[in-house]
Protein backbone atom coordinates (compact mmCIF):
# COMPACT_ATOMS: atom_id res chain seq x y z
CA UNK A 1 0.00 0.00 0.00
CA UNK A 2 2.79 2.43 0.91
CA UNK A 3 4.65 1.86 -2.36
CA UNK A 4 1.47 2.31 -4.43
CA UNK A 5 0.55 5.50 -2.57
CA UNK A 6 4.07 6.89 -2.90
CA UNK A 7 4.26 6.17 -6.63
CA UNK A 8 0.90 7.77 -7.35
CA UNK A 9 1.53 10.77 -5.14
CA UNK A 10 4.96 11.51 -6.63
CA UNK A 11 3.37 11.88 -10.07
CA UNK A 12 1.92 15.20 -8.87
CA UNK A 13 5.09 16.49 -7.21
CA UNK A 14 5.16 18.40 -3.95
CA UNK A 15 1.48 19.43 -4.25
CA UNK A 16 0.41 15.83 -4.68
CA UNK A 17 2.36 14.82 -1.59
CA UNK A 18 0.86 17.63 0.48
CA UNK A 19 -2.65 16.88 -0.83
CA UNK A 20 -2.37 13.22 0.17
CA UNK A 21 -1.00 14.09 3.62
CA UNK A 22 -3.85 16.57 4.16
CA UNK A 23 -6.80 14.80 2.56
CA UNK A 24 -6.32 11.17 3.52
CA UNK A 25 -6.19 11.76 7.30
CA UNK A 26 -9.07 14.25 6.95
CA UNK A 27 -11.26 11.80 5.04
CA UNK A 28 -10.30 8.96 7.37
CA UNK A 29 -11.72 10.81 10.39
CA UNK A 30 -14.54 12.71 8.65
CA UNK A 31 -16.30 9.81 6.96
CA UNK A 32 -16.38 6.66 9.09
CA UNK A 33 -17.26 4.24 6.30
CA UNK A 34 -14.69 5.66 3.89
CA UNK A 35 -12.20 6.07 6.71
CA UNK A 36 -11.89 2.32 7.02
CA UNK A 37 -10.65 2.15 3.42
CA UNK A 38 -8.38 5.21 3.25
CA UNK A 39 -4.85 5.01 4.66
CA UNK A 40 -4.62 8.35 6.48
CA UNK A 41 -1.80 7.32 8.78
CA UNK A 42 -0.02 5.65 5.86
CA UNK A 43 -0.06 8.95 3.96
CA UNK A 44 1.49 10.73 6.95
CA UNK A 45 4.25 8.12 7.25
CA UNK A 46 4.83 8.39 3.49
CA UNK A 47 5.12 12.17 3.82
CA UNK A 48 7.82 11.71 6.44
CA UNK A 49 9.73 9.31 4.21
CA UNK A 50 9.56 11.71 1.29
CA UNK A 51 10.73 14.56 3.53
CA UNK A 52 13.75 12.45 4.48
CA UNK A 53 14.57 12.09 0.78
CA UNK A 54 14.25 15.85 0.19
CA UNK A 55 11.04 15.71 -1.86
CA UNK A 56 9.18 18.06 0.49
CA UNK A 57 10.18 20.12 3.57
CA UNK A 58 9.69 18.23 6.83
CA UNK A 59 7.89 21.17 8.49
CA UNK A 60 5.36 21.35 5.67
CA UNK A 61 4.51 17.68 6.14
CA UNK A 62 4.04 18.06 9.90
CA UNK A 63 1.77 21.11 9.51
CA UNK A 64 -0.20 19.51 6.67
CA UNK A 65 -0.71 16.27 8.63
CA UNK A 66 -1.85 18.25 11.68
CA UNK A 67 -4.31 20.29 9.60
CA UNK A 68 -5.69 17.15 7.96
CA UNK A 69 -6.19 15.41 11.30
CA UNK A 70 -7.89 18.40 12.95
CA UNK A 71 -10.04 19.11 9.88
CA UNK A 72 -11.18 15.50 9.61
CA UNK A 73 -11.92 15.29 13.32
CA UNK A 74 -13.98 18.47 13.16
CA UNK A 75 -15.97 17.27 10.17
CA UNK A 76 -16.57 13.85 11.74
CA UNK A 77 -17.76 15.49 14.96
CA UNK A 78 -20.05 17.86 13.03
CA UNK A 79 -21.55 14.95 11.08
CA UNK A 80 -22.22 13.08 14.32
CA UNK A 81 -23.90 16.15 15.85
CA UNK A 82 -25.94 16.86 12.72
CA UNK A 83 -27.16 13.40 11.79
CA UNK A 84 -26.83 11.73 15.18
CA UNK A 85 -27.70 8.02 15.17
CA UNK A 86 -29.20 8.25 11.66
CA UNK A 87 -25.65 8.34 10.38
CA UNK A 88 -24.66 5.26 12.36
CA UNK A 89 -27.79 3.41 11.26
CA UNK A 90 -26.54 3.56 7.65
CA UNK A 91 -23.34 1.66 8.43
CA UNK A 92 -23.76 -2.06 7.67
CA UNK A 93 -24.30 -4.14 10.83
CA UNK A 94 -21.34 -6.38 10.06
CA UNK A 95 -19.05 -3.34 10.28
CA UNK A 96 -20.62 -1.60 13.26
CA UNK A 97 -22.66 -3.68 15.70
CA UNK A 98 -25.25 -1.82 17.82
CA UNK A 99 -23.89 -3.35 21.04
CA UNK A 100 -20.35 -2.21 20.20
CA UNK A 101 -21.62 1.26 19.32
CA UNK A 102 -23.44 1.53 22.64
CA UNK A 103 -20.29 0.49 24.51
CA UNK A 104 -18.19 3.02 22.57
CA UNK A 105 -20.66 5.83 23.29
CA UNK A 106 -20.66 4.90 26.96
CA UNK A 107 -16.84 4.96 27.03
CA UNK A 108 -16.80 8.40 25.39
CA UNK A 109 -19.27 9.74 27.94
CA UNK A 110 -17.23 8.28 30.83
CA UNK A 111 -13.75 9.21 29.62
CA UNK A 112 -14.38 12.36 27.54
CA UNK A 113 -11.17 13.84 26.21
CA UNK A 114 -9.07 10.79 27.05
CA UNK A 115 -11.24 8.81 24.60
CA UNK A 116 -10.51 11.39 21.90
CA UNK A 117 -6.78 11.19 22.61
CA UNK A 118 -6.62 7.39 22.60
CA UNK A 119 -8.89 7.24 19.54
CA UNK A 120 -6.44 9.33 17.49
CA UNK A 121 -3.76 6.64 17.99
CA UNK A 122 -5.96 3.57 17.39
CA UNK A 123 -6.63 2.62 13.77
CA UNK A 124 -10.26 1.51 14.04
CA UNK A 125 -11.18 4.15 16.58
CA UNK A 126 -9.56 6.97 14.60
CA UNK A 127 -12.32 6.64 12.03
CA UNK A 128 -15.23 6.38 14.49
CA UNK A 129 -14.42 8.45 17.59
CA UNK A 130 -15.00 11.88 15.98
CA UNK A 131 -18.48 10.92 14.81
CA UNK A 132 -19.32 9.12 18.04
CA UNK A 133 -18.24 12.18 20.05
CA UNK A 134 -20.69 14.26 18.02
CA UNK A 135 -23.44 11.69 18.52
CA UNK A 136 -22.75 11.53 22.26
CA UNK A 137 -23.20 15.26 22.65
CA UNK A 138 -19.67 15.92 23.93
CA UNK A 139 -19.28 19.70 24.29
CA UNK A 140 -17.69 21.15 21.15
CA UNK A 141 -15.06 23.16 23.04
CA UNK A 142 -13.86 20.10 24.95
CA UNK A 143 -13.88 17.97 21.81
CA UNK A 144 -11.91 20.47 19.73
CA UNK A 145 -9.35 20.98 22.48
CA UNK A 146 -8.69 17.26 22.81
CA UNK A 147 -8.78 16.82 19.05
CA UNK A 148 -6.08 19.44 18.61
CA UNK A 149 -3.94 18.10 21.46
CA UNK A 150 -4.11 14.51 20.20
CA UNK A 151 -3.46 15.57 16.59
CA UNK A 152 -0.54 17.75 17.69
CA UNK A 153 1.09 14.67 19.19
CA UNK A 154 0.00 12.19 16.49
CA UNK A 155 1.04 14.16 13.37
CA UNK A 156 4.69 14.82 14.24
CA UNK A 157 5.06 11.35 15.75
CA UNK A 158 4.02 9.54 12.58
CA UNK A 159 5.79 11.98 10.28
CA UNK A 160 8.96 11.21 12.25
CA UNK A 161 8.26 7.47 11.98
CA UNK A 162 8.25 7.93 8.22
CA UNK A 163 11.30 10.14 8.34
CA UNK A 164 13.12 7.40 10.27
CA UNK A 165 11.95 4.80 7.76
CA UNK A 166 13.60 6.89 5.04
CA UNK A 167 16.96 5.69 6.41
CA UNK A 168 16.02 2.08 5.59
CA UNK A 169 17.84 0.63 2.59
CA UNK A 170 15.65 -0.18 -0.38
CA UNK A 171 12.99 2.41 0.36
Set out the fold topology:
Blueprint: H1 2-10, H2 13-30, H3 32-35, H4 40-52, H5 58-89, H6 98-111, H7 113-120, H8 123-136, H9 140-165
Helix pairs in contact: 2-4, 2-5, 4-5, 4-9, 5-8, 5-9, 6-8, 7-8, 7-9
Tell me what the structure shows.
By secondary structure, the protein is mainly α. The protein has one domain. The protein contains 9 helices and no strands. Helix 2 packs parallel to helix 5 and helix 7 packs parallel to helix 9. The longest helix is centred in the middle third of the chain and has 32 residues. It starts with a helix and ends in a 6-residue tail after the last helix. The mean pLDDT is 85.
Short précis:
The protein is mainly α. The protein contains 9 helices and no strands.
